[in-house]
């Protein structure tokens, strides 16, 4: 008998904070500048230098903790995480271990284990055909990134599919962007994700041996990588083999997984308190300032959209989790050219997104007021839905007023008078096979007649009225 397996996934997300300077020195943050041009003796780990904590990074950490519903530690300390790697000039990373800034919390359906502050490593580039250290011709290090303030967000193993991981990361990214703590640009490395993955027989509660997919920088690649690792683990177990605890690299070009090293446990890093930094003591004034700075978060916005505008949960989440869509929707509703917010939301998330993709509708030629007017014309049956889509095509290409486009293109909805009756009669005459099938009780055959009328009238006819007239003229 084949056993069904359940994947269990936990995520570790590293977020570069949008401070002006690095975590423990005064070097300005940069991206894309001349390599090794933003460095100093502190971030290069020169002997005798002393770190100083970036107060703005602590403020951002508190904001994130409050947004995630975490418990804020009244006293928090930094540790040295010891390991040797070419991108770590000190031979250790200043991070937090057993007394992090924030503990617990929840975002959506996923529980948070901890949120802590640390410094980023330098950027290590492996030069060779594969871009991996094991078979690189050479490696170069750019220390500009070294020392960049990071917040690491660690979830509980509360995720059970690659698709769920991707959706939750989308919510997290939008939340962080709303907080203003990071640009969360994955292409530039501002947000990076590691995934810890294990499988277990369905119904079991004990976790299996986990592996780690490291430093994935695209939600699409994260989803593909997790799916590939789940399939690999299932194949191993079903073949009677064991899953080794290791760190893996997913190659999105080939879809293959490669072992990098055995996965470390916390004791392998020999953590000990950082002797050159004093503890962080969070005051009531700091907490009050962080509370005051909290904006409306995506999950709260989605709930408001559901309650205030009677939207479905799915559409409310789509609008709230893509900030630019939510802003556009609210501007369209606010123009008061259509009194049906649910219809506006449907057009924004459906027809408009289908034409603009991931682009910001606020940057398009379709103003929120124009879309609201368009939806109003359709809602009041001055335009059919099909003709409305044709008008939207024109608005996306050229902008303008939907009513003017409707008139200039001759797309105003037909009434149910002689013109429509004649169009239906022509359709019946031109489609004898469909008529015969419809008379024999094959209801789907009416689609050919409706389609004929729609083509001849350029979508100006109302589908329901066409259906009624077809049946009336055929005596059905």
How would a textbook summarize the main sheet? 10 strands, mixed
Unreliable spans are none
What overall geometry do the principal axes of the alpha carbons give? elongated
Oligomer: single chain
Structural class: alpha+beta
Helix content: 25-40%
What is the distance, rounded to the nearest whole angstrom, between the alpha carbons of the first and last residues? 55 Å
Q: How many strand elements?
A: 17
Count of DSSP-assigned helices: 15
Beta-strand proportion? 15-25%
List the helices and strands and how they pair.
Layout: E1 5-16, H1 55-67, E2 71-72, E3 75-76, E4 79-82, E5 92-95, E6 102-103, E7 106-107, E8 110-119, E9 123-127, E10 138-142, E11 149-155, H2 162-179, E12 191-201, E13 211-216, H3 219-238, E14 246-251, E15 256-262, E16 272-273, E17 280-281, H4 284-293, H5 298-309, H6 313-321, H7 323-334, H8 341-356, H9 368-379, H10 385-398, H11 402-408, H12 418-430, H13 432-439, H14 446-456, H15 463-474
Parallel strand pairs: 13-14
Antiparallel strand pairs: 1-11, 1-12, 2-6, 3-17, 4-5, 4-16, 6-8, 7-8, 8-11, 9-10, 12-13, 14-15
Summarize the structure.
The chain is of the alpha+beta class and 476 residues long.
Describe this structure in words.
The protein has 476 residues and is an alpha+beta fold. It has three domains: 5-292, no CATH class; 298-408; 418-474, Arc Repressor Mutant, subunit A, CATH 1.10.10. It is 39% helix and 19% strand. The chain contains 15 helices and 17 strands. The longest helix has 20 residues, at 219-238. The two termini are 55 Å apart. The model has no long low-confidence stretch (mean pLDDT 88).
């Amino acid at each position: 008998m084949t056993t069904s397996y359940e994947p269990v996934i936990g995520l570790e997300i590293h977020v570069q904070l949008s401070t002006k300077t690095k975590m423990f020195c005064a070097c300005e943050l940069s991206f894309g500048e001349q390599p090794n041009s933003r460095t100093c003796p502190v971030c290069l780990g020169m002997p005798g230098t002393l770190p100083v904590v970036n107060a703005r990074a602590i403020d951002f950490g508190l904001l994130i903790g409050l947004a995630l519903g975490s418990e804020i530690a009244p006293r928090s300390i930094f540790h040295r995480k010891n390991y040797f790697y070419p991108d770590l000039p000190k031979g250790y990373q200043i991070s937090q271990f057993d007394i992090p800034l924030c503990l617990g919390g929840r975002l959506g359906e996923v529980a948070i284990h901890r949120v802590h502050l640390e410094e980023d490593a330098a950027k290590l580039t492996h030069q060779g055909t594969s871009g991996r250290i094991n078979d690189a011709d050479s490696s170069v290090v750019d220390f500009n990134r070294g020392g960049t303030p990071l917040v690491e967000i660690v979830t509980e193993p509360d995720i059970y599919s690659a698709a769920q991981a991707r959706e939750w990361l989308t919510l997290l990214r939008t939340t962080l962007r709303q907080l203003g703590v990071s640009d969360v640009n994955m292409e530039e490395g501002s947000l990076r994700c590691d995934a810890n993955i294990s499988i277990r027989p369905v119904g079991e509660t004990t976790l299996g041996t986990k592996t780690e997919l490291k430093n994935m920088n695209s939600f699409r690649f994260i989803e593909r990588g997790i799916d590939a690792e789940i399939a690999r683990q299932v194949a191993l177990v079903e073949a009677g083999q064991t899953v080794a605890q290791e760190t893996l690299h997913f190659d999105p070009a080939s879809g293959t997984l490669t072992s990098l090293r055995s996965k470390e446990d916390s004791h392998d890093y020999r953590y000990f308190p950082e002797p050159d930094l004093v503890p962080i003591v969070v005051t009531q004034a700091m907490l009050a300032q962080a509370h005051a700075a909290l904006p409306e978060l995506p999950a709260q916005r989605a709930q408001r959209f559901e309650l205030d505008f009677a939207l479905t949960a799915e559409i409310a989440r789509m609008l709230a989790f893509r900030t630019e869509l939510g802003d556009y929707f609210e501007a369209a509703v606010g123009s008061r050219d259509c009194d049906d917010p649910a219809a506006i939301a449907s057009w924004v998330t459906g027809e408009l997104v289908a034409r603009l993709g991931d682009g910001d509708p606020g940057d398009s030629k379709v103003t929120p007021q124009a879309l609201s007017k368009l939806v109003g014309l359709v809602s009041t049956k001055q335009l059919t839905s099909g003709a409305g889509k044709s008008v939207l095509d024109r608005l996306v290409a050229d902008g303008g007023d939907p009513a003017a486009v409707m008139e200039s293109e001759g797309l105003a909805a037909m009434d149910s008078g002689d013109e429509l009756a004649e169009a239906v009669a022509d359709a019946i005459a031109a489609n004898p096979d469909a008529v015969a099938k419809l008379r024999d009780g094959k209801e789907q055959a009416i689609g050919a007649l409706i389609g004929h009328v729609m083509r001849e009238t350029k979508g100006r006819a109302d589908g329901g009225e066409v259906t009624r007239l077809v049946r009336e003229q055929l005596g059905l």
